[in-house]
């Protein structure tokens, strides 16, 4: 009999998810710290390439390396890599132009865009509660972006470019989520994780003619560290879903805002603005409403199954 790799251990799941979120935020801080000297494409390469050894060791420990090397539909992995690499590059560009908390806050819009794209491309139904959540979330995005639009000074123009890059990254990540929903029907999770890092490493090399630099010893060490930290975070967030449902773990995504504010303040002397806080609050509230609705629908579906398909 095959061993069941999942179990309900909520505290462990929460611990793994929260640790992963902290590591992702720390990785973003490392990229931001290096962004003044290291181009975004070069940072994407190090983030992706040096995550591969961590992922390979993880797959070996789980006995899934073979599954991780099997790509049933290679082009699906390629397009997942294109979308994910684009999102990463745009985010890293934004990190060099905006405060860390602001980049984090705008990124919270990804689930809202995913909901809209799922309705368009997957035919998923959006009822009134979800429509309301989307509208509230979009209003929050507009509030966060408004101070960045229409600036004339060079610094303000760069900040506007950074905000638009991060917004574009949220769209790209939303497309990634939609694409992965289709991929998991034929592809093993291990293969999706492995081939994304491999594809991103190759694609990021295409930015080599656009101004890569030879990093110093310190910069090289920090770039490698960013890759290792990102790989570990990816593994932890994946592992967290072995011990708890997505609906339970979803709210812990917003701990990244706490980590971003703390790291931004103590490392970069950044403070969130009132407009950013107001917009982020609306986006988080919208996402929470969607999570609550999904949880409620899940309970209703469970009751329906218990009536139509009794176990005793």
Give an overview in words.
The protein has 312 residues and is mostly helical. The chain is built from 14 helices and no strands. It has helices spanning 10-34, 40-49, 52-61, 65-68, 74-95, 100-107, 110-121, 128-145, 154-183, 189-204, 217-240, 246-249, 255-268, 274-308. It is globular.
Number of helices: 14
Element-level helix/strand string: HHHHHHHHHHHHHH
Structure class = mainly alpha
Indicate the mean pLDDT. Answer: 87
Unreliable spans are 299-312
Beta-strand content estimate: under 5%
Shape: globular
Question: How would you characterize the largest beta sheet?
Answer: none
**Distance between the first and last residues' Cα:** 24 Å
The number of strands is 0
Helix percent band: over 70%
Provide the gyration radius in Å.
20 Å
Task: From the structure above, extract its key features.
312 residues, globular
Summarize the structure.
The protein is an all-alpha fold. The protein is 74% helix and 0% strand. The relative contact order is 0.21.
Per-chain topology:
Blueprint: H1 10-34, H2 40-49, H3 52-61, H4 65-68, H5 74-95, H6 100-107, H7 110-121, H8 128-145, H9 154-183, H10 189-204, H11 217-240, H12 246-249, H13 255-268, H14 274-308
Helix pairs in contact: 1-11, 1-13, 2-5, 2-10, 2-11, 3-10, 3-11, 5-9, 5-10, 6-9, 6-13, 7-8, 7-9, 8-14
């Amino acid at each position: 009999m095959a061993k069941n790799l999942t179990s309900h251990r909520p505290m462990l799941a929460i611990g793994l998810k929260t640790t992963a979120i902290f590591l992702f935020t720390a990785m973003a801080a490392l990229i931001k710290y290096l962004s003044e000297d290291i181009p975004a494409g070069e940072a994407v390469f190090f983030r992706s390439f040096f995550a591969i050894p961590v992922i390979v060791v993880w797959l070996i420990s789980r006995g899934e390396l073979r599954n991780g090397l099997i790509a049933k539909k290679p082009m699906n992995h390629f397009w997942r890599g294109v979308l994910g690499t684009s999102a990463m590059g745009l985010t890293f560009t934004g990190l060099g132009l905006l405060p860390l908390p602001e980049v984090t806050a705008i990124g919270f819009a990804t689930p809202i865009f995913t909901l809209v794209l799922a309705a368009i491309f997957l035919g998923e139904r959006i009822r009134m509660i979800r429509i309301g959540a989307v509208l509230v979330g979009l209003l929050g995005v507009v509030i966060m972006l408004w101070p960045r639009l229409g600036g004339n000074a060079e610094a303000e123009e760069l900040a506007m470019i950074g905000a638009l890059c991060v917004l574009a990254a949220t769209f790209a990540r939303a497309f990634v989520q939609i694409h992965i929903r289709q991929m998991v029907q034929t592809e093993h999770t291990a293969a999706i994780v492995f081939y994304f890092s491999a594809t991103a490493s190759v694609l990021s090399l295409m930015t080599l003619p656009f101004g890569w630099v030879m990093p110093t010893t310190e910069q090289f060490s920090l770039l490698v560290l960013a890759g290792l930290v990102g790989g570990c975070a990816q593994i932890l967030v994946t592992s967290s879903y072995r011990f708890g449902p997505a609906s339970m773990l979803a709210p812990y995504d917003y701990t990244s805002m706490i980590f971003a504010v703390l790291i931004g303040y103590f490392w970069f002397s950044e403070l969130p603005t009132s407009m950013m806080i107001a917009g982020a609050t609306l986006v988080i509230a919208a996402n929470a409403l969607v999570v609550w609705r999904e949880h409620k629908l899940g309970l209703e579906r469970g009751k329906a199954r218990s009536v139509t398909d009794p176990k005793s």
